Amino acid sequence: MNQDSRGPFVVAHRGASAARPEHTLAAYELALQEGADGVECDVRLTRDGHLVCVHDRTVDRTSSGSGLVSEMSLEELRDLDFGGDGEPSPVLTLSELISLVLDWRSRPTKLFIETKHPVRYGALVENKVLAELQRFGIATPASAAHSRAVVMSFAATAVWRIRRAAPLLPTVLLGESSRYLGGSAATTVGATAVGPSVKTLREHPDLVDKAAVAGRTTYCWTVDDPDDVKLCAELGVSWVATNHPGRTRAVLDALGPLPDSQTD
């Protein structure tokens, strides 16, 4: 992952999820239209082995149904409505999201995939993610800087599995603790970036410099307040995940180029 003089790149958190239902095709299409540099999704495995873009263990909050994602088949999930705004929307698969991102011709866009743990399927989640990326020809980029996909997790073991199987694929070790992210964990698993929450970053702004010294970039979530967007730019954060990609892009554009921005 690299950065230019514009300051942080904008990642649409679950799509443009402040304006459209999260993890829906409409949310991601709007994010791309608003100029997001990347889009983020959470993935879970269905009972029959399909990767779907759902954040929670259950579908209760985000759909018209109820139950555990891991206990439902893709067909059963497709019978539910994940729109919730008057516009019916079926569950979005990782395959469908990858296709959308790769087919978007206006500009290259990165896909940030977060694997959720603990889950009943364990390492199979990362194996399935890598298989899907391989199917689309983006699992083994020429370099991390040119990769179209990034894999993230709060679970260090998940990051380690990705780094072991696909060394050139960028990875983010997510976390809330500055001691965890600023310590040896990221080095041990070979993460190419650390991902603090914006709350953690406010309390420990030195995390960005510490990561840079170790050769890692910084991905900060979830950055919606304009003052936090400006803070990330000032600190040299590489990527900001936001529910408001269009607004966040406008805030950054208004700041202009930052001559001291980090590069990698």
Automatic annotation (TrEMBL):
Domain GP-PDE stretches: 8-252
Pfam families the UniProt entry points to: GDPD
UniProt cross-references to InterPro entries, sorted A to Z: GP_PDE_dom (IPR030395), PLC-like_Pdiesterase_TIM-brl (IPR017946)
MF terms (GO), sorted A to Z: glycerophosphodiester phosphodiesterase activity
Keywords assigned by UniProt, alphabetized: Hydrolase
SUPFAM superfamilies the record matches: PLC-like phosphodiesterases
Listed GO biological process terms: lipid metabolic process
Record-listed E.C. numbers: 3.1.4.46
Protein name, entry field: Putative glycerophosphodiester phosphodiesterase 1
Organism: Nocardia macrotermitis
Record lineage: Bacteria, Bacillati, Actinomycetota, Actinomycetes, Mycobacteriales
